Amino acid sequence: MTHELLWQTKLAARLHDPAEKALVLLRDPAGHENGTSRALRRLLGFDRLAENIDPDNDEALVRTLFKKGLPLEMYRHIQRADWWAAAADRPQFPLQEITVTTKSGEQKTLAVANWAQVRWAKNPVLVHPLTGAQYDLGQHGGLSDTDIADIKQRSFDHFSRLVAALGAKEETSPDWRKLLLAFWRFGPELTEEADNGKLGALWGLLPADTRIPDHSIWDHLDLTSAFAGAFVADPQGEVALLALSIGPVQPFIAAARKMDDLWAGSHLLSRLAWEVMQPVCERLGPDAILFPRLRGIPQVDLWLRDRMGLPDSLFADSDWMQGGADANPLFSAALPNRFVAVVPARQGKDIAEACTRAVRQWLNDLGRDVVSRLLHAGGYDVEATTTPYEQMKAQLAGFPEVHWASVPFALIKPGNPDKQTDLDIGGLSEAMAPFFGVEPGQPCGFLATPAWQVLQKEIDWNDGTTFFVPNPGVLYPAVYDLAERVLAAAKAVRPFEQIKQEGWRDSLSGEAEWLTTDRSQLTQPAGQRQDTLWTRVAKAKPAWAKEGEHLGALSAIKRLWPTVFAEEVGRALAAGEKGEKKDIGRFVVSTHTMALAYQLDQWLERGGLTAEGLSNRLKPAETAALPRRLVRRHAANPALADAKRIPALLDDARDAEDDKAYENAKRLVEATLAHGRGSKDKIRLETYYALLMMDGDRMGAILSGDEKTAILFRASFHPQVQKGFDQRAAQQPLLRQYGDQKRPISPNRHLAISGALNDFSQTVVRHVVEEEHLGRVIYAGGDDVLAMLPVADLLSCMQRLRHAYSGVDSDHEGGVWQGLTLQQGFAALKKRQRLQVMRMMGEHATASCGAIIAHHQAPLSAVLRELRSAEKRAKGEGGRDAFSITVLKRSGGALYLTAQWGEPVALLNELIAFLRAEDTSRRAVYHTLEWLRDLPEPQSNPEMLERLLAYQLARQSGSDPRAASLAQRLARLAAAQPHNGRQWLENFLTVAEFLARETRSGGQA
Questions:
Q1: Is 898 helix (H, G, I), strand (E, B) or coil?
Q2: 560 three-state secondary structure
Q3: What is the pTM (predicted TM-score) of this model?
Q4: Keyword Nucleotide-binding: yes or no (predicted)?
Q5: Which of 255, 266, 359, 1005 could bridge to 333 as Cys pair (CB 3.0-4.6 Å)?
C-alpha cells in the first residue's frame, strides 16, 4: 500500500454518499449516488485513476466501476467499509420483496415497500439515539421548497470551495491527505456563501438513512472512511479496535494550591490526551478515532492548520480565531484521557507504542523548556546547570501511564468473503469466554443477548419479509466490549517501578523531591532554604512560585503551564493571516475576584462611580481577570477598567501584611460599591465564592449500552416507518419480538455520545456558566465540569447545567434563557446570528453535582477535598441524579445538604427568596431549629411538623402568605428522606439561611 492510496481511498469513501442524500433520496431521477458524489469524484480526478478497467471483469462490475469512477481495489475496500458501517450503525431493517415489470419488460425486485420509503425533505424528523425521542427540525425553519438541482448545486459548491481553498488544480495531483482532512473537518459546516440562509442548522444533522434517522450522514461517512482506511492499510485487509487510556487522572489534577494550578492540571491532562492521539490522526486521519469525536476541537483545529497545512482562511469563522482574550476556547480542557479507534489489525501494537512515545516525548520536551525558564528566571547558566534537567527527566520517566488493548475483527470469519456473510464467531466466542467466566463456545456478553439471537441468521418470516444477512460490522458491540475488558485487565497488571527520591518533598504534591541546582540543598528543611532555585524564582516570578514553595517536576510544569500555553496561543494567533502579535494576559479568575464578581456587576450596572480617594490607589498596570459575562455586559462602561483593578488592589494590600493599609483599601472599595444603592446601610464585601463539580452518571455503562439509555429497535425508525412496521408486526409475532428488543451499542452510539459531550462541554457549558451567569469554566471535558461562580449564581447555574446535560428544560423551552433552548434531548443556540442545533445526552442520562461555598482565603487543597467529597455524596447518599452542597464556614464548621434535582432546588430558591423578604426576620431559621431538635422524625408525624413549621415561618415573616406552602413542601420532602429526615431538614434550613444573606463576610460566618 502506498501512502497516497490510503488517503485516496479514505477520501473516496467519504464521497460514496452525498451529504444531501436525505434531501434528494427518492426525488432525484439520477439517483443519490450519481449526483454530487459522482461530480466531486470527477472534479478530484478519481475517474483518471479508474481509466484502465480489466475487460475480463463481469459486465455489471464494469458498469459499476465506470459509474463510480474508482479502481477495482479501491472500490472493493469502500464497498466492504460501507457494508460494515451500515451493519454496525443501523438496526437490521425488515424488507419486503416486491416484483415489478419495468418498461423494458425486465423483472425487477425492489427491497423497500412503499410504507418504508421516507421522503425526508417533507417530514424532517430526527430520532435521539439514547432516548428514541423524535425531534422535528421543521420547527426551526431549516427546510424550504428548494428544488433538487439547487440542493445538489449548493452541496457541490460547498465542497468545490474547499478544493479551491487548498489550491488543488485539475492538471496536477492533489494533496489527498489535505483534501481528506478538509472534507472531514469542514464538510458538515455549510458556509453562509454556499447556503444563502436556506439549510442552516439542518446541514450538520442530515441523517444517513431516512428510515432510521438516529445518526447523521457525517457519522456514517466518518465510519466508512475509518474502516476503508484501515482495510487498505493492512496487508490482509483486516481491522481492529484499539482502546487506549492515560493516567493517573485525579492525583494529577488534585495537586493544587491556587486556581491556576487547578486549571493547569485539567488543561495539561487534556493536552496530553491530544498528544497521545496525534499519531493515530497523522497515520490514519482523525476520523479513525470513534471516541472522542475530534471534529471542531480547537486544539485539533490548530494541528490541522499548523501541522497538516490547511489554510488559515478555512478557520476564519472558528471561535478560537476570534481573538486573543482569555475566553478563547483553546483555554478550555476538551478531551478525555482515553480513546477508541479503528486501526489496521497488524499495526495495533505499533500504533499504541507510537502513541506512548509521542506523549512522553512531548512532556519531556516541555519539561526541559520549563527547567530552562526557571534557570533563566533564577539567574543561572541555562546550559551549564545540569542537575534540575536530570531531576526532571528522572521524575517524568514512565509518565503518563499508557494502557492499551487491540482486538481484531478477524476473530469473526465470514464464510462468504465476497458478501461478508455466513459468520463464524467461534474465535470471538473463545476470546470472550475467560472474561465472562464461561466455557469456550458458550454464549456470553453480546453473543448471549436476544438481539444477537435475532440478528445472527436469516429468519423465515413466511410472508415475503426478509432481513439483510449480517456481516462482521453487526458484531461491533462484542468487539468493543472485549477491547474494554482487555484494557481493564491491562491496567490491573501494570508494572510498578520505584523511583528513588531524596530529601524534602515537593510543596504541592508531597511526592517527589523538588528541583534544585545543588542536591545538598534537598536536606534543608523549610525556613532554612536561603538561596535556592525556588527562592530566586519566587522573587523574580511570583506567579511561578510563592515564597517558601519548592516544586518537583510535574508541579513545576503545572505551575508554568499557564505562561507556556498563553505564549503558544499568542504565537498561534499571530501565525494567522493578520500576523498580529497577541499578548494573552492572566486568564484564571482568582477566588477573591469571583467572590466580588456579583457586587462588581451590580456596581457597574448602577453606573460605576468610584469613591473619592480610590482612584489614586488603583494601579493601572495591576488588573485582575474578570468573569466573561461581566466584561461583555459592561464593555462600553469606562468604569470597567476600575473594576479590573479593585480585586488587585485588595490582593496587594492583603499580601503586604499591613492590616491598616488593607482596612483602608477595603473601606474605599466598600464605599465605591455602595454608590447608587439608595440605602444608608453600609455595604460589606462578599468574601465567599462557589465551586461546582458536575459529572455524568454511569458513563461507562452508557458507553457499553446500559438498559436505561438503550432504545428499542422500532424506536429507531422514522415515525412513518414505525407506523408501517407496527401494522406488519401486529400480524407477525417474530417481527414484533424483534422490534421490542433493545438496540446494542454501535459506533453511531459512541459518535453520538461523543458528539453530545463535545457540544455540551465546549459550547453549552461555556454559554451557561459564562454567558448566562457570572462564572468561569475551569474544566469542561466530556461529562465532567468544574466551574467557579459567585455564590449568588450557584443554584441557578447548577440546575441549568443539569437540564443542559440531558437537553430537557420544560421551563425554558421558548428560548427565554438568552437563546438557549433545551427540548427533547436537543439544544438550540444562536451564535453570531446562526442557529446551532446540538444533540445532548437525552432525558434518560443523568448527572450529579457537588458544590462548595468557601471563603476566598481558605486553602484550595482543603476546598477541593471537600468538593470531591460533595460530589461523592451526591452519587452515594443522593443516589445519583442529585446534588450536594457544602458550606465551609470561615469561623469553623461546615453545613451540608444533599438532595435530588427538581423540587428541592425549586424549594431552596423559594425559601431563600422568602428569607430575603423585608418583613422576614433573619432569626426565622434559628428559632425553627431550636424546637425542631425536640421533635420526632418527620416520617412518624409529618402533619405535626408541617403545622409547627407553618406557624414559625408565618410568625417570623409578618404572616407572609407563602409560609403555609413552604411548610407543607418542606415537611413532605423531610418525610420522604430514607433516614434521618429531621437532620436533613436542619441542613436544608441552615444552607438556605446562609445563601439568603446579602453578603457573607468573614466575620459573619
A1: strand
A2: helix
A3: 0.89
A4: yes
A5: 266
